[in-house]
């Protein structure tokens, strides 16, 4: 079984303003580096990116990168899953580049879920990234459209496939205020 990590880092960051939120500083490191380091325990790591500076940072962290134009999350998922499938992945963990408080332990717990079905963090009665998918679900991921992730595919997960991660660690940064709040509380 070849487990891969897919870091989605090609969004448009419209709510953040002119600055690329993934490069914004959080306690001395770019936001995306914090998210990337949570995936450090996975050998095959791919980041789908839309900015060269982000790609350069992630390559230095051991990620392969795939450059695509900024666009909807479904485009990033489709491109990343296709590339990881080509590289022989049989299971993919999907994480977001703006979720800076995830820990490697959170990813290890996700990897410990049953390998033959999807699993996800669970927040407020709904699925949340990060999530994990077996190869049998890759076609469903490739069929996603719009600026939504895989949440709609995960709504009916049974309790054994739902991972309890503290809500604080599932915080994603969409605005400068969210980054400021995160920095104050981290």
UniProtKB/TrEMBL annotation:
<feature type="domain" description="MobA-like NTP transferase">
    <location>
        <begin position="5"/>
        <end position="158"/>
    </location>
</feature>
<keyword id="KW-0808">Transferase</keyword>
<keyword id="KW-0460">Magnesium</keyword>
<dbReference type="GO" id="GO:0016779">
    <property type="term" value="F:nucleotidyltransferase activity"/>
</dbReference>
<dbReference type="Pfam" id="PF12804">
    <property type="entry name" value="NTP_transf_3"/>
</dbReference>
<protein>
    <submittedName>
        <fullName>Molybdenum cofactor cytidylyltransferase</fullName>
    </submittedName>
</protein>
<dbReference type="InterPro" id="IPR029044">
    <property type="entry name" value="Nucleotide-diphossugar_trans"/>
</dbReference>
<dbReference type="InterPro" id="IPR025877">
    <property type="entry name" value="MobA-like_NTP_Trfase"/>
</dbReference>
<keyword id="KW-0548">Nucleotidyltransferase</keyword>
């Amino acid at each position: 079984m070849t487990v891969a990590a897919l870091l989605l880092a090609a969004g448009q960051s419209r709510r953040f303003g002119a600055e690329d939120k993934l490069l914004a500083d959080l306690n001395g490191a770019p936001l995306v580096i914090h998210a990337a380091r949570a995936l450090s325990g996975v050998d095959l790591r791919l980041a789908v990116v839309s900015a060269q500076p982000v790609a350069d940072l992630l390559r230095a962290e051991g990620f392969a990168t795939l450059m695509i134009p900024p666009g909807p999350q479904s485009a990033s998922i489709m491109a990343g899953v296709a590339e990881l499938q080509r590289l022989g992945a049989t299971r993919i963990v999907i994480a977001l580049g703006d979720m800076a408080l995830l820990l490697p332990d959170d990813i290890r717990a996700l990897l410990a879920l049953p390998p033959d079905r999807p699993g996800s963090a669970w927040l407020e009665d709904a699925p949340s990234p990060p999530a994990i998918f077996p190869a049998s679900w890759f076609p469903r991921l490739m069929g996603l459209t719009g600026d939504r992730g895989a949440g709609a595919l995960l709504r009916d997960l049974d309790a054994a496939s739902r991972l309890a991660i503290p809500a604080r660690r599932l915080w994603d940064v969409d605005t400068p205020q969210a980054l400021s709040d995160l920095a104050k509380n981290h």
